[in-house]
Amino acid sequence: MANNILQETTKLSNGVSMPVFGLGVWKSNNAQAAESVQVAIKNGYRLIDTAKQYGNEAGVGYGIQQALVDNRLNRKDLFVTTKIFNGDQGYLSTLHNFDEQLKRLRLTYVDLLLIHWPVEGKYLDTWTALEKLYKEGKVRAIGVSNFDQDNLADLEKLHRLMPQVNQMEFNPLVQEEHLFNKMNGLGIAMEAWSPLGGGEALNDPTIKAIADKHGKTTAQTILRFDYQMGVITIPKSAHEERIIANAAIDDFALSEDEMAQIKAMNKEQHSIWHQDFAWHKGSEDTGVKDEVSTWDDTDEYLKKEVTY
Fold first, then answer.
1. What is the pLDDT of residue 3?
2. Could you tell me what percentage of the chain is helix, strand and coil, using 3-state DSSP and rounding each to the nearest 5?
3. 284 confidence band (pLDDT: 50, 70, 90)
């Protein structure tokens, strides 16, 4: 039987219900993504998050279709998110490349489509394309990722549909307090990438002491913190036992004092930000390269047939 946390949803500003807890597949090849998706759905997960940049949409698409068959589910039982790659941004390019993403995912629509990063000079045109896809019914909700207050203000000036979701780095070390308040005022849901905060947060003695008190792991304690903060959470794992354990956070609650202790850890310590990218610095020779991950098994999963 699925955990309550996996059955819980939040209503986005356009009325669409989105699960509050799901699976991320960043840095997974297609085989790993397909297996993780199937395991997660078998164990009650209904929210699956990927992106073109991850290079595993083909594996995710296969995993979804196989899991639907194996678990006797319908497409509408799942909530699938993907993202527009930075190199595809712009109005016409977004529309064309999104059709290719749908093919890789083996879907006729996605539940949530995000702009992956606010590429200067392009993200407003990209947003216009997302609005078109939304109106056409190819996506049920639209949003952004890694957008700060200024980026959101730019969208506000368009006087059109605002994002339903902003997916940000969020964990005990990066709590986005000012942005969170701005988003709440605009009716934009916060979704966390890197919800566990890496080794520094997982090994923090304060969190470990709280975890020990509740008989939980530090990962479960952090995920419970994210949940109580009202953040949609998508931890990544390729192991079934961890996928199950990550969602086992509905049988305890953090006290106000424990929440305050974890809130006090906030450093706004981003692991990466848009100024780190080569496209922001204006040169391909500096900054973080922005490329679609390539995996040897992509063609295999594009052709792989679902077994009935």
1. 62
2. 45, 15, 40
3. low
Alpha carbon distances (Å) from 220 to 10, 111, 206, 250: 20, 27, 14, 10
Cβ atoms of residues 192 and 167 within 8 Å? yes
Place of tokens 């992509």: 298
Paired residues of 84 in beta bridges? 115
3-state DSSP assignment of residue 305 = coil
How far is Cα 294 from Cα 286, in angstroms, rounded to an integer? 21
Cβ contacts of 103 within 8 Å, gap of 6 or more: none
Q: Is 33 exposed, middle or buried (0-12, 13-18, 19+ CB in 10 A)?
A: buried
Which residue in 45, 54, 62, 227 is the catalytic one? 54
Instruction: Please state which CATH class domain 19-287 belongs to.
Output: alpha beta
Query: Hey, is 37 helix, strand or coil?
Result: helix
Q: Smallest Cα–Cα separation from 23: which of 201, 249, 192, 272?
A: 192
Q: What is the CB-side half-sphere exposure of residue 33 using CA atoms within 13 A?
A: 29
What does R_g of the chain's alpha carbons equal in angstroms?
Answer: 19
The DSSP bridge partners found for residue 82 are 113
Residue 45 annotated in active site: no
Can you tell me the distance from the alpha carbon of 60 to that of 32, in angstroms, rounded to the nearest whole number? 9
Tens of pLDDT, residue by residue over 206-265, are 999 999 999 999 999 999 999 999 999 999 998 999 999 999 999 999 999 999 999 999
Name the residue among 261, 138, 256, 134 with its Cα closest to residue 206: 261
Position 272 scores a pLDDT of 87
CA distance 191 to 169: 8
Contacts of residue 85, defined as CB under 8 A and 6 or more positions apart, other chains included, come to: 51, 52, 53, 97, 116, 292
Which residues lie closer than 8 Å to 257 by C-beta, 6 or more apart? none
